[in-house]
Amino acid sequence: MAHARVLDASGRELSPCSQAKALRLVSQGKATLLSEEPLTIRLLRAIPLVETPREAPPLQGKRLLLHICCAPCATYTTRRLREQGAQVTGYWYNPNIHPFSEHERRREALVTYAPTIELPMIWEAAYEMPEFLRRVAGRERFRQRCALCYRMRLERTAQVAASEGFELFTTTLLISPYQDQKLICEIGEGLAQDYGVSFYFENLRRGFAEHHRLAREAGLYQQRYCGCIYSEWEAQDRAAATNPRPV
Ligand code: SF4
Hints:
By secondary structure, the protein is of the alpha/beta class. Helix content is about 45%, strand content about 15%.
């Protein structure tokens, strides 16, 4: 069927209609003929725009405390949580990171980065490495120690979230495919019950590649191992196994 272009009285293009209908509107005095080829009519009245109401993002206006393990992981995660409507505050507490110089390097990267994305921060001043090592002593196996590590960091985050009046807490650890997301979630949910602040879970791993891009773009320091002395040793060991040094 041949169609006609239709404009409203203000000249805004509307959906086309059949040529027969366009000519009928002209003959009824409801439109004027603008051109025959292509057939174009202008209605005598303006058609108001119909606004479709946008759904509010799920975390609209909620105050969320985000535990941050390092600046690169904060890039995509902060952006994503803000897109979800959250008012994000970052929280630094990583007593697992070893040695102290590495802890400071990662902390300083975040000190520099946070203001560039206008991210308010709460900094845990103490370096509680001795307590971390006490907790994992005798339970140093990968995953076993990680469960203790997640708990230590998330528990402090939940405590601070509760005392500072946040509605939600979560962690940048959820972005890494090297972390046990299910376990983080279980621990987070349990702490949410204990401290009366909701744990926010989202599979942030879909942003893993993007977080690398954002970190490179911002020129952030990117570490080569997870954090604890065991993970440093394992990373070196793996490197040595794939790339043995000449004797
Ligand atoms: S490997 Fe990473 S998550 Fe596991 S204990 Fe070490 S620092 Fe913590």
